[in-house]
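This is your field. Pick holes in the following sequence-structure pair:
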Amino acid sequence: MGLAKLLVADDHPLFRAAVLHALREGICLGQTLEVDSVSALTQALDEHPDVDLVLLDLAMPGARGFSSLVWLRGERPDIPVIVISSNDHPRVIRRAQQFGAAGFIPKSAPVETIRTAVSAVMAGDTCFPAQAAARSERDALLAARLARLTPQQFRVLMSVADGLLNKQIAYELGLAENTVKVHVTAILKKLECNSRTQAALLVKALEPEGESGLPGEY
């Protein structure tokens, strides 16, 4: 099985090197890319639209739990994503699956597991550990709501969750302030939220350990 272009997104250089070494031993790799933050991931995907697979750590700088996975699935739904995480709680595995990952690899997994997962996903299958928790309808609803957002709206939402004002968001994203206002209005409507605070709580629900969001609703 040949893999033309692989992107490894993890903020630990030794781990990235170990993963690439493991894969080169059993898979025909072409070009490989390494990034250590969400901003670097965004730039790499802009510069390399032909990436075949992303191995994604959930805890990179700039990420809020599953936010980078949700963003990536919205921005580039054609690229399969395998989450690699040191947090292999069954609920985390299930949430990764529900938020669009094609596979999940615990960082403690042996080399052969990594190769097997990558090979399976590149063949069009999925690969998740057997101990995944039961499906959550609340997560399914959250994923469906977030999927309504455009990639730019998702970026604005993340800035809203960081507590930035429209003027600050405009500066950070290189947008006109009025454009940000339009995005925020659309975001609240699509997420069925009445305020920026409610929208920020939805983002908080993307944290791996979060069970939640607003009680009884998303």
Remarks:
- The chain has two domains: 2-122, 137-204.
- The longest strand covers residues 2-9.
- Residues 2-122 form a domain with the Rossmann fold fold (CATH 3.40.50.2300).
- The two ends are 41 Å apart (CA to CA).
